[in-house]
């Protein structure tokens, strides 16, 4: 398991939201590019970039900002937020993204991106944003009632998606601790998973490590890193 710093981009600025609420945003002085380079220098092994404007509009609104980040760092980058067509997927891979995270399109019109799911098998990650175990889409503004376990199985068996990011929206940006019960339950599935939401301090990383889950590959951390509650170097040392 490794720490994946999040760089959330809104209006070309680096921000953090609380429970996905665009009205509850906190802007940071460092630009998205400066933040990404900083986390790389602090020892990050991967970055998680999110186009928050794109998550609402369905367009790659911050493509230029993300492209500049990808070109400026040497570590793998996963990109998400409003990626809903084959052209955008290909554009991000062409610019150097290691992974692309798909959310809404997987549940609204997965057939439209099936060529990319086949072409980039192993590099497409499913973003499962959860609110009371319902899947949230369209920038977390819409909840859909789909059976979670069956949905995951279908994405894996029918479309070859093997890695899933599970974000607990109720804990995202709240610094309230991770949902260990949900992570433990999902880890029983034959998938690779990345946890997101709620990390507040090193103690949360310790608890995740103590779960001893071989298929828990990483944990995305945002506000705890930006607010200085979690030291990335210490967290990496704990996990090494």
UniProtKB/TrEMBL annotation:
Stored Pfam families: His_biosynth
Intracellular or extracellular location(s): Cytoplasm
Active site residues of this protein: 8, 129
Single Gene Ontology MF annotation: 1-(5-phosphoribosyl)-5-[(5-phosphoribosylamino)methylideneamino]imidazole-4-carboxamide isomerase activity
PANTHER family in UniProt: 1-(5-PHOSPHORIBOSYL)-5-[(5-PHOSPHORIBOSYLAMINO)METHYLIDENEAMINO] IMIDAZOLE-4-CARBOXAMIDE ISOMERASE (PTHR43090:SF2)
Protein's gene: hisA
Record-level GO cellular component terms: cytoplasm
Pathway annotation from the record: Amino-acid biosynthesis; L-histidine biosynthesis; L-histidine from 5-phospho-alpha-D-ribose 1-diphosphate: step 4/9
CDD domains in the record: HisA
Source organism of the structure: Candidatus Acidulodesulfobacterium ferriphilum
Keywords linked to the UniProt accession: Amino-acid biosynthesis, Cytoplasm, Histidine biosynthesis, Isomerase
Xref: Gene3D superfamilies: Aldolase class I (3.20.20.70)
Reactions it catalyzes: 1-(5-phospho-beta-D-ribosyl)-5-[(5-phospho-beta-D-ribosylamino)methylideneamino]imidazole-4-carboxamide = 5-[(5-phospho-1-deoxy-D-ribulos-1-ylimino)methylamino]-1-(5-phospho-beta-D-ribosyl)imidazole-4-carboxamide
Keyword Isomerase part of the UniProt annotation: yes
Membrane-crossing segments per the record: none
EC number of this enzyme: 5.3.1.16
Primary enzyme class: isomerase
The protein's name in its UniProt record: 1-(5-phosphoribosyl)-5-[(5-phosphoribosylamino)methylideneamino] imidazole-4-carboxamide isomerase
Family, as annotated: Belongs to the HisA/HisF family.
GO biological process: L-histidine biosynthetic process; L-tryptophan biosynthetic process
InterPro entries in the cross-refs: Aldolase_TIM (IPR013785), His_biosynth (IPR006062), HisA/PriA (IPR023016), HisA_bact_arch (IPR006063), Isoase_HisA-like (IPR044524), RibuloseP-bd_barrel (IPR011060)
